[in-house]
Amino acid sequence: MHALKHYLVSYRINGQDASLEMQEFEEPSLDQVRLRLMRKHQAEPQVTTDGPWEDPVCDSEYSRIAELGISDIHITPKT
Known about the structure:
27% of the residues lie in helices and 33% in strands. It has two helices and three strands; from the N terminus they run ββααβ. Strands 2-1-3 form a three-stranded antiparallel β-sheet. It is globular, with a radius of gyration of 14 Å. The mean pLDDT is 85.
């Protein structure tokens, strides 16, 4: 049987400290956390992926996080 573990995600949004508590069976990846933060902070969350013919400087997910002003993401297990 698996138990839910608690994680604290600390980050900055537009220079202000913020945090998010997550409950997962395993430590969430940074990509999972980014998607959760986009869902939390966007009025109409939409996730898009770049087409195979596109050659972006960075992935859409990363540019959307930067547009929202989210940075310094840290995941810490809660005890």
